[in-house]
Every structure is written in structure tokens, then in C-alpha cells.
Amino acid sequence: AEARQQILERLLGKERNDLSGDDVAWCVEKSEGYSGADMANLCREAAMGPIRSIDIDLIQDLSADQVRPIMREDLEAALRQVKASVSNQDLELYEEWNEKYGAGK
């Protein structure tokens, strides 16, 4: 959970956002089982939310500071789009393999 939180904070912290600590904690909870790459994809998808909300006819005339910040609704939409790429069953298999053959055995 801590790693997912750090990824969210670092990647979305580079962008304008209105995310509270509670929003980040909620997303960390909802993204249980996500890999680092999954989290990066989630952040990328959430960052597209404000851009997708702009009327296509107006997009060319807007400056970056006129685009709304990333909000919780963008995280919610991103979570509906981006799913964990590794299943819990796969993780269990990897953990069993590591127990038998991993480093230190």
C-alpha cells in the first residue's frame, strides 16, 4: 500500500490536482493488487480526465493553466478503465515459487 501511495503522490504531484489525502488513501485502497506499471497507467489515465472534459472546439485556444486540475472523479474513472494486470492467483503462484526456489534458499 505504501508503494502505491508513493507512486500516486509522485506522479500526480507533478500535475495540477485537487486531490486530498483522503482521495489518495481511497485510491490506494481501491488499487490493491496493482503493480507499479498498473499504477503508472492509472495516473496517466487520471491525468487525461481534465483534458477529456474540454470541448474539442475550445482545446486549441486554451492554455495549460485554464485546464481544470485532476480531481477524485478522474481517479474513479481511471480505476474503471485500468485494471490490475496480475491476478491474485498469479501472485500466489509467484510467492509459492519464491518460497521454494527464490533467493536465499
Helix percentage: 55-70%
- The fraction of residues assigned to DSSP E strands is under 5%
Briefly note the structural class of the backbone. mainly alpha
Distance between the termini: 27 Å
Count of distinct strands: 0
Helix count equals: 5
| CA-based gyration radius | 17 Å
Instruction: Give the mean pLDDT.
Output: 92
3D shape:
elongated
Detail the poorly predicted runs.
none
The biggest sheet amounts to: none
Secondary-structure element order, as H and E?
A: HHHHH
Write the layout of secondary structure elements.
Blueprint: H1 2-13, H2 21-30, H3 36-52, H4 72-81, H5 88-101
What does this entry look like structurally?
By secondary structure, the protein is an all-alpha fold. Helix content is 60%, strand content 0%. It contains five helices and no strands. Helix 1 (2-13) crosses helix 2, helix 1 (2-13) packs parallel to helix 3 (36-52) and helix 2 (21-30) runs parallel beside helix 4. The radius of gyration is 17 Å and the shape is elongated. It starts with a helix and ends with a helix. The model has no long low-confidence stretch (mean pLDDT 92).
Defining key terms:
single chain; 105 residues; mainly alpha; 5 helices; 0% strand; elongated
Q: What's a concise summary of this model?
A:
The protein is mainly α. It is built from 5 helices and no strands. The longest helix is centred in the middle third of the chain and has 17 residues, at 36-52.
